[in-house]
UniProtKB/TrEMBL annotation:
Keywords: ATP-binding, Cell membrane, Membrane, Nucleotide-binding, Transport. This is ABC transporter ATP-binding protein. The lineage of its organism: Bacteria, Pseudomonadati, Pseudomonadota, Betaproteobacteria, Rhodocyclales. It comes from Niveibacterium microcysteis. The keyword Cell membrane applies. It comes from the Bacteria. GO terms for molecular function: ATP binding. The keyword DNA-binding does not apply. Residues 5-233 form the ABC transporter domain.
Length: 234
């Protein structure tokens, strides 16, 4: 079966700084995969390259078999990215944000799906509220809806629980778990081993732009003493 994500020799330089130092990675369809690493490890860089937002200095990435550079449009359709930062036009309503994103993918009649997304993320009552009137937690849920607007098979979440309270965190995880059970491939980046361990089948540890460990969750925890691992990723 085609890999959901296939990364080969990914290198990224920002001037003299090497953010990715040769990453090879395969994520199978249907996996719930964690990319674990401290600040500056290269997680966002790898995700941005995967979403076609930045170009690698060397190497290649395929999403569901589509090269993110040579076959950008198809590759982009295959993936929904929930970014770390909340960037919205404050005067757009929730529904307008989702319609705009649908338009980006050429989806003209998407309102039924938008309504479904709003309902499953408990945003129906806020559908016509402007983004500036929403709490941080609600905005984060809009980000999730936005990533799903084109029904991508692969969903990538970049530290979605950073700065999020316990209740919303649990709600988000329940939602993402359900997506995984429905067959979506999930990749999430996190600083927290506990989060990766609770949710994911496999974990890759990224440090200074390189994968330093990659295994299924049980093996990874067995191989590395929990305390050492915590110190290494803190
Ligand atoms: P965090 O957990 O803090 O979000 P991260 O693992 O996502 O970190 P990246 O954001 O990918 O790490 O950053 C990797 C390295 O690349 C860091 O040293 C960062 O300062 C650098 N970097 C990222 N984006 C740029 C940029 N646009 N220009 C210059 N350097 C950058």
């Amino acid at each position: 079966m085609t890999a959901a994500i296939s990364v080969r020799g990914a290198v990224k330089h920002y001037g003299a700084l090497q953010a990715l130092g040769g990453v090879d990675l395969d994520v199978a369809q249907g996996e719930f995969f964690a990319l674990l690493g401290p600040n500056g490890a290269g997680k966002t860089t790898l995700i941005s390259a995967l979403a076609g937002l930045i170009r690698l200095s060397a190497g290649s990435i395929r999403v569901m078999g589509h090269d993110v550079v040579d076959d950008y449009r198809e590759a982009r359709r295959m993936v929904g990215v929930v970014p770390q930062e909340l960037v919205f036009d404050p005067f757009f309503s929730v529904r307008e944000v989702l319609r705009l994103q649908s338009g980006y993918f050429g989806l003209k009649r998407n309102d039924d799906w938008i309504d479904e997304l709003l309902a499953s993320l408990d945003l129906t009552k806020k559908a016509d509220a402007n983004m500036r009137q929403l709490s941080g937690g609600m905005k984060r849920r809009v980000l999730v809806a936005q990533a799903l607007v084109h029904r991508p098979p692969v969903i990538v979440l970049d530290e979605p629980t950073a700065g999020v309270d316990v209740e919303l965190r649990q709600g988000l995880w329940a939602f993402v778990r359900k997506l995984n059970e429905q067959g979506h491939t999930i990749v999430l980046t996190t600083h927290y081993l506990e989060e990766a361990q609770t949710l994911c089948n496999r974990i890759a540890m990224l440090k200074a732009g390189r994968i330093v460990a990659l295994d299924n969750t049980a093996n990874l925890l067995r191989a590395v003493d929990g305390h050492t691992l915590r110190v290494r990723i803190a």
